[in-house]
């Protein structure tokens, strides 16, 4: 009898482990039935926004590993998800929904959800309820600063804490490290994480040193982390040797550079001395990135190879960049056309329920990239942002 009970327990455990692996794969297969049926931009916008609101209060966990077998082991070891990923995921949703609120009439429910989310991140003194350790938090602070309908001054302590956190990551050569324990490297991700916040914070509170740091971060990367002759970034570079690290043409790396550059430029007043400098960078990068856009409107996870898998996260961020870059006369037409092509692709990559699919998963290390492509809150947020921003008083 005892042997039978042991056998039953073992079989039950095996079944549970198998189901943990099989259920997500089965759900993905079901959810991808009739994918890409959206042909009306307004309906698509409403659908992706509905999902974005849902995810803001309960952001889907993004896997750390690429394991699709014996996932239960990763869960038990604590390697399935990690909290640090969520800052940039939630920030993108907040940026997108904030843009939606500005562009649409009476979105009271969305305003309420946003307010509840921001309140949950703060303590009674307007500081972070859970003090961030990594500069990833700066993009979330930037997203909060963009919420014009909230009293942002209530959260001044959190904004100041974010600036102090960034200062604490400045290296001897004057640029910001991705992580303190990786201080000898500079990542392209960091440009997207910190530069928009630094410019917005610096302009709002009269701290020109913040703006100078953002511009310096971009300039250093352009000097040491760009592929000569093509102006696309490597994943990282080593600050002493100036050697590039990782892949030239990693799609989301282009996206991080693009949003850091374009949002920093957008935050600068028209008469600021650094604006023409960043504008030159925008023109140069736009012309380079458009070369790698595929016929379907997407960019691939490795933009330089047509054979690699299309990446919705790259396409959404570069689409956002292109639409905003279309404000510059020299590249206006090609950038607006590029943004519209990106939107058409993203519509075709959207599930029936409004979740944008086929985004590359979390990167493991410099040069070690995920081969899982699924939904990503970061992509969802930038799709919403892209569809609701007004450029030259026009909505795409």
UniProtKB/TrEMBL annotation:
Keywords: Hydrolase, Membrane, Transmembrane, Transmembrane helix. The chain crosses the membrane at residues 6-27. InterPro entries: 6-hairpin_glycosidase_sf (IPR008928), 6hp_glycosidase-like_sf (IPR012341), Glyco_hydro_88 (IPR010905), PolySaccharide_Degr_Enz (IPR052043). Gene3D superfamilies: 1.50.10.10. Pfam families: Glyco_hydro_88 (PF07470). It comes from the Bacteria. This is Unsaturated rhamnogalacturonyl hydrolase. It comes from Paenibacillus allorhizoplanae. The lineage of its organism: Bacteria, Bacillati, Bacillota, Bacilli, Bacillales.
């Amino acid at each position: 009898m005892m042997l039978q009970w042991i056998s039953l327990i073992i079989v039950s455990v095996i079944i549970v482990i198998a189901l943990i692996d099989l259920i997500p794969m089965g759900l993905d297969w079901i959810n991808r039935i009739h994918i890409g049926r959206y042909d009306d931009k307004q309906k698509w916008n409403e659908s992706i926004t509905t999902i974005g609101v849902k995810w803001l209060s309960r952001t889907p966990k993004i896997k750390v590993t690429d394991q699709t077998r014996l996932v239960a082991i990763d869960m038990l070891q604590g390697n399935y998800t990690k909290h640090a990923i969520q800052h940039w995921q939630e920030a993108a949703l907040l940026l997108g929904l904030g843009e939606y609120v500005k562009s649409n009439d009476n979105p009271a429910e969305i305003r309420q959800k946003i307010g509840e989310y921001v309140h949950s991140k703060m303590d009674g003194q307007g500081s972070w309820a859970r003090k961030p350790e990594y500069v990833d938090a700066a993009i979330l602070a930037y997203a909060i600063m963009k919420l014009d309908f909230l009293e942002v001054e209530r959260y001044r302590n959190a904004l100041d804490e974010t600036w102090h956190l960034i200062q604490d990551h400045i290296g001897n050569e004057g640029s910001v490290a991705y992580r303190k324990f990786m201080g000898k490297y500079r990542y392209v991700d960091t440009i997207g994480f910190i530069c928009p916040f630094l410019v917005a914070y610096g302009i709002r509170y009269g701290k020109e040193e913040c703006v100078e740091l953002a511009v310096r971060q971009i300039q250093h990367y352009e000097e040491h982390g760009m592929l000569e002759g093509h102006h696309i970034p490597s994943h990282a570079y080593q600050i002493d040797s100036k050697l590039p690290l990782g892949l030239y043409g990693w799609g989301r790396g282009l996206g991080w550079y693009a949003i850091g550059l374009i949002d920093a430029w957008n935050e600068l007043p028209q008469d600021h001395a650094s604006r023409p400098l960043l504008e030159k960078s925008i023109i140069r990068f736009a012309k380079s990135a458009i070369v790698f856009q595929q016929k379907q409107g997407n960019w691939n996870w490795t933009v330089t190879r047509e054979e690699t898998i299309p990446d919705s996260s790259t396409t959404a961020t570069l689409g956002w960049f292109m639409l905003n870059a279309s404000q510059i006369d020299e590249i206006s037409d090609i950038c607006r056309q590029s943004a519209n092509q990106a939107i058409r692709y993203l519509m075709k990559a959207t599930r029936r329920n409004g979740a944008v699919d086929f985004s590359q998963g979390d990167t493991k290390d410099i040069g070690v990239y995920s081969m899982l492509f699924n939904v990503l809150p970061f992509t969802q947020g930038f799709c919403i942002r892209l569809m609701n921003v007004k450029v030259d008083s026009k909505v795409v």
